[in-house]
């Protein structure tokens, strides 16, 4: 047997950075109380630290917090939450980065949501909740309401997630990555749909437009044909892989592919995926000093060709600098717009482009966000997406679980 | 290309049977108001009809309702819900049967929860909610709180589900079913774990003990060896299937299998799975006139061997008539106890066996119910499973969404 199944592993998110913010300064007594929980070195009110925690990779302007706290364990998180709850101080969790790249697992392993079995959550009042019961990690359950699913993707607005139990999948016996360049966006996305229709069990399938490929070639020293491209990965036994590759190649040829080349060795594969993972920075490097603005729509697979082709045309017509990249196996793709934050007119154009794209996804029965979340930027689109009743139910859930409205305030709703 | 991917289909649950119940009789005016919504022929207060809707396949004794209503469309469900809400009349949805056999999809396609993309729900006050937004059916989303996951498995206690959008999977190019008899329960379950560890992409894997096999042989005219047995199904291309079968057979031989035979033709396969689906009635036929009592635990795959072997020993020691059958690819299995409902001592023994099994699953980090739900029978085990904080959050969610407590009252919590 080639591989070992470990059904689950529990991992901690510590050390993580949490920060407390509210209108106006925190009292000296309150800062002392924070220090009493986590120790002096783990609380900061220094201007540089506050500034550093006052923005993220997005183009949205955020207020810096009044204090930054680095709790060392879940008990401290719980005591901090109770302290803030009693004093009415809002909490905004701040991670170390984007973390899980759920999007890279297309079709074969499911999305991140499908692979979270249990969460440890500190509730706003400081109580500790294990969404599936403490220590549990089973494959399916009908035991009461699905609290795990409610907290996944809640963007820190219902409580502070301090640990997650994830489902692991067996390491495949063999892995092959492939790249394939196409004469058009249409040909690349038609290939994606055909591969899924043919039930070829592709492990990853990623689309990059020619602007993105050009940027990756420069930033990550690749030597790919500058054309709309698919990156694919196949997992399985050696025999199964040979068959999968053959079927995938036949489909790419049917759609007029310019080439189809595969990388069997781990080093070559890793270089390819490292380039894909660095695509954000490759795009930013197209205009040094500018900021990235990412869209995140997801549509039913059957609507993917029309939205990708139309979006490519719109992007070219907009005059914006932008690349396209997507986890197309899920129907999800991003435009990374590279925008001068000082140019108000350009910023408005980027916002209009992103809003129009979100609305187009909604019209095609899709969602305005497959992965990134609502945050501040997509609250209006969320209302259009789920409707008045859906928003009202979400508001009620938020009010029930966070009655003082202190958890990542103003986000999502 | 061998198959067609249709990303989703929307199907209605109509006609379904709903009934209204409360302590004491409904007023004549209220019955007239129900008739005004759905039409005279779709409301009944006849004693025989009430009696027929006063019990299910379980051993739990239920009160018959005061009226049975057959709404014809979602607008009528909505108007009925508003009527009952205003008058404080509880509603208990009553389906046409168990419907989805989520358990038969092990490892390969995920559980039912993973395959529900959207739900149409009539809320207690009569409002219509589309959990993912009206008409939407995308593969993944980060748009607000996951309302779909909250309603799946809520057992009618939060609202009335009137339609579901499901993810469909491509029809495989070829399908093969196999049966394999083993000298012991241990050998059969070790084989299950080994097949999953080896990442053989088995589509279904079902365990039946020798008592269940004997019952199926009689009830469904099978001719299987009377021994602990696995039913397996493989999906894929012809070439991939040959490899999967070979690997599975090697693993069964390694574990001392008595035989391994496979059925390629649809008719033979269908006979096998029909027998499996009729296992409940095959078990009941072991003691005509008696009632079935099913357990439903689910544990991490790694703990499956010890719980199955121990449960088999306990079942034999208990003196109860019972079979074992399970969707072991998910870690989920059932004991079907066949009990004389007039024999209070035997009933108590069956309840004690089921409770002990539930607690053993909890001790192994599992759940007391993988599929059947909590209902009335497992409310105590649910408290042990999710803990005081989990129960309190579930109570708050119930109180928020069903403030008058009219949706399937007393179930789950």
TrEMBL record, chains A, B:
Keyword DNA repair: no
Cellular location(s): Mitochondrion
Molecular function per GO: D-lactate dehydrogenase (cytochrome) activity; D-lactate dehydrogenase (NAD+) activity; FAD binding
Annotated Pfam families: FAD-oxidase_C, FAD_binding_4
Record EC number: 1.1.2.4
Classification via SUPFAM superfamilies: FAD-binding/transporter-associated domain-like, FAD-linked oxidases, C-terminal domain
Any one cellular-component term (Gene Ontology): mitochondrion
Record's keyword terms, sorted: FAD, Flavoprotein, Mitochondrion, Oxidoreductase, Transit peptide
Enzyme class: oxidoreductase
Matching InterPro entries: FAD-bd_oxidored_4_C, FAD-bd_PCMH, FAD-bd_PCMH-like_sf, FAD-bd_PCMH_sub2, FAD-linked_Oxase-like_C, Oxid_FAD_bind_N, Vanillyl_alc_oxidase_C-sub2
Cofactor(s) listed in the protein's UniProt record: FAD
Start and end residues of each FAD-binding PCMH-type domain: 67-171
Example GO biological process: lactate catabolic process
Entry-linked Gene3D superfamilies: 3.30.465.10, 3.30.70.2740, Vanillyl-alcohol Oxidase, Chain A, domain 4 (1.10.45.10)
Family: Belongs to the FAD-binding oxidoreductase/transferase type 4 family.
Protein name per UniProt: D-lactate dehydrogenase (cytochrome)
């Amino acid at each position: 047997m080639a591989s070992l199944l470990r059904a689950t592993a529990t991992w901690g998110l510590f050390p993580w950075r949490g920060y407390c913010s509210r209108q106006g300064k925190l009292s000296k007594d309150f800062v002392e109380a924070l220090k009493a929980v986590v120790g002096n070195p783990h609380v900061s009110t220094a201007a540089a630290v506050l500034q550093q925690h006052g923005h993220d990779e997005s183009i949205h302007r955020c207020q810096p917090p009044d204090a930054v706290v680095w709790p060392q364990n879940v008990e401290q998180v719980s005591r901090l939450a109770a302290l803030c709850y009693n004093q009415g101080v809002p909490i905004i969790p701040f991670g170390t980065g984007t973390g899980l790249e759920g999007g890279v697992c297309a079709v074969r392993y499911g999305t991140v949501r499908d692979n979270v079995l249990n969460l440890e959550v500190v509730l706003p009042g400081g109580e500790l909740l294990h969404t599936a019961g403490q220590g549990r990690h089973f494959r399916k359950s009908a035991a009461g309401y699905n609290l795990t699913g409610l907290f996944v993707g809640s963007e820190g607005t219902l409580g502070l997630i301090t640990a997650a139990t994830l489902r692991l999948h067996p390491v495949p016996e063999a892995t092959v990555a492939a790249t394939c360049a196409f004469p058009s966006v249409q040909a690349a996305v038609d290939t994606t749909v055909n591969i899924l229709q043919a039930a070829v069990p592709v492990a990853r399938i990623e689309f990059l437009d020619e602007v993105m490929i050009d940027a990756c070639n420069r930033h990550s020293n690749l030597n790919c044909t500058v054309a709309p491209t698919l990156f694919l990965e196949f997992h399985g036994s050696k025999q199964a892989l040979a068959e999968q590759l053959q079927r995938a190649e036949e489909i790419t040829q049917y759609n007029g592919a310019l080439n189809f080349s595969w990388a069997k060795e781990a080093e070559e594969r890793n270089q390819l995926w490292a380039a894909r993972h660095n695509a954000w920075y490759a795009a930013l490097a197209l205009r040094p000093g500018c900021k990235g603005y990412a869209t995140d729509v997801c549509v039913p697979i059957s609507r993917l060709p029309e939205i990708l082709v139309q979006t490519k045309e719109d992007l070219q017509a907009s005059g914006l600098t932008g690349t396209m990249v997507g986890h197309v196996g899920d129907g999800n793709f991003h435009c990374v717009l590279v925008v001068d934050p000082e140019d108000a007119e350009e910023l408005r154009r980027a916002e209009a482009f992103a809003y129009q794209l979100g609305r187009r996804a909604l019209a095609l029965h899709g969602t305005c966000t497959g992965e990134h979340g609502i945050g501040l930027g997509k609250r209006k689109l969320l209302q259009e997406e789920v409707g008045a009743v859906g928003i009202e139910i979400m508001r009620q859930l938020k009010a029930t679980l966070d009655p003082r409205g202190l958890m990542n305030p103003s986000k999502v709703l």
